[in-house]
Amino acid sequence: MEMPQTQLILESDASESSLTALETGVIDLFVNGVRVLGLPKSIGEIYGLLYISPEPLSFDEILSRLQISKGSTSQGLKILRSLGAVRAVYVAGARRDYFVAETELKKLVGGFIREELSPHLDSGTERLESIQSHLPDASEPDAQFFKDRVGKLGTWHKRTELLLPIIRKFLT
Amino acid sequence: MEMPQTQLILESDASESSLTALETGVIDLFVNGVRVLGLPKSIGEIYGLLYISPEPLSFDEILSRLQISKGSTSQGLKILRSLGAVRAVYVAGARRDYFVAETELKKLVGGFIREELSPHLDSGTERLESIQSHLPDASEPDAQFFKDRVGKLGTWHKRTELLLPIIRKFLT
DNA sequence: GGGTGAGTTCAAGAAATATTGAACAGAATA
DNA sequence: TATTCTGTTCAATATTTCTTGAACTCACCC
Fold first, then answer.
1. A84 with A102: CB under 8 angstroms?
2. Looking at the 3D structure of chain B, how many domains does it have?
3. Residues B66 and B119 in one domain
């Protein structure tokens, strides 16, 4: 709802974490981006940092540069991986995992549709069926109105299902 | 002196509000729908009720059938009107306002894009400009990498701007 | 086995959002 | 003008969602 123009301000005692202005700007952009998508801020921070990082980053580097907790880092990376937005890469002789951002828009959009939108559409299908079973008998007053409106819901639903592949294709 | 017959009006519990199964189902669908869009539940409830109502409903009818507060009702209707999803209709000789749902998908999508998405895209434009101003000098190591990634952000942004009209058109 | 490094889990606390209701404002009646 | 009817505003409260950090698991090394 609302749009709090959050400007990511660098902590003043940030002597420690020190993100560059470029990094801060990119992270800020993604933090605001994921907001629109309904994802938590930490997801945007992590993705933003990886996006603008020339090298793969380890779990600890992410955590300490962003100054977020282990829990958020772990949870955030998990979700980003499930979205296909972040990938673990092999680094020779390293024990830890290293992560890089996936930057193919098609893949990002595909992951978001698969993980976040499609499940909702599916639950919508069930709800719609339930609604249809509650349509009043044709003899009831307004029966036609109800039938029309419920029918329109079905049309919207189908249209939305058709729209998703189009979006994916367009963003290729 | 006669005491007025004080009828204890038992207000509250479902005996009073009683939504039909059909209404409940439709409201449920919209409540879950607006969730995906990042709008509050009450918005979904109000729109759902109006959507499946054969007659325009007054402020008080909405409030009492949904059992939500005056504040939520007022605020919800305000937002729905700003989105173009609800319209006040004239009812002869009535003092109150009466409301109906707008059911043209194109209009709904257009309103959402205009009110919720475009402002974010605009703020993205500003943020992008700020980022570009922080690109390191070409002599810096990784300068090309940064330039590429920031360039890609610009491409994504433009593509998204192009996508919105396509979505609107498709959902006509 | 015992110790250490790396990451996950999840209950509790913090932060962000939504809802409520009482005070208010304006318009239509009386 | 006073009164009632309608709806709005907004500070306080409730609810939801995110983040934290301590306890835990698992794998590796000594």
1. yes
2. 2
3. no
